[in-house]
User: Fold this.
Amino acid sequence: MAKNFCRDGIAENVQYGALGPRVKSVSGAFQVRNAADGAFVRMAGDDPTADDDFVTKRWGLANLGGGGALPAGLPHANDLIFYVDAADLASYAGTGTTVVDRTGNGSAGTLVGGTAVANGAFQIDGATTKGVSFTKNATLDNLFDGGATVLTFIQTQTPGDGGSGRFLSTEGASTGWYLFGDTAFGGAGVRTRFIRKSGGGTDGTWTGTGAMPRGSAATTGGGFAYTSFGVTYDDSVLANDPTLYNNGLTVGTPAGTNPSALGSDVGNPLKIGNAANDGAPMNGQSQVTLIWSRILTAEEVLQAHN
Assistant:
């Protein structure tokens, strides 16, 4: 029998909804979601205007909104500086445009361009304005200086303009970086590609090997063929090459074109999805994105993917 961790007399079918327990602390008291995960059930004396800790508990895993416990098994959790999961109510509450970085690192996110959240994912349908824009915490500025790891879970579909698809970026006019899916396989699949902009000179450009198949549109009842695309990179030495990953497995350290210089991306937002100046927008959906302030080993990237 499930443990009654709310007030005495609250029925278990009220505490435990379809997605697991839902509990909210309001002015020192608890509120609970109903069995259909609908509106909170407010108890007498509670302040409905307060907005204290929002607690989501799934199958024994308790996550605190804006920080707290993160999913078990993630390597180097202390070095995780960005974590967003569109299916997690602590990342996206189900309404509005606010998206929360679950590390509590202070990166504030907003759905832009009319982006919707459905099927537990950000729906990014090929419009260049669609995506989630984050005002970065300083730890995400010039992220790869000294080494970092990015891993993002994407379901790609055929881009509307036949382009590549922008997954994640801090791209400005001439600064920043972006991770996207190259479509050199005639539309049959995508492969990981990474660009580090130079600040006005030659950009660093690297493309991995092997194509990951596209998925069908989940919004029309298709499958959920999520693929993780990842990169580890240290740009403190311009001659360094990144290591690229598909589904937790390395697709090589490609001998690409190294940048001739680097420009600071301070002030550029972190964007999940498309950038306004992107001529090859992403078409698909994004679910989970993770960023570490260290380079993970190949074994650790696979562990994080799994």
Q: What stands out?
A: The radius of gyration is 20 Å. Residues 98 and 110 are 5 Å apart (CA to CA). Residues 1-68, 216-224 have pLDDT under 50 and may be disordered. The chain is about 5% helix and 35% strand.
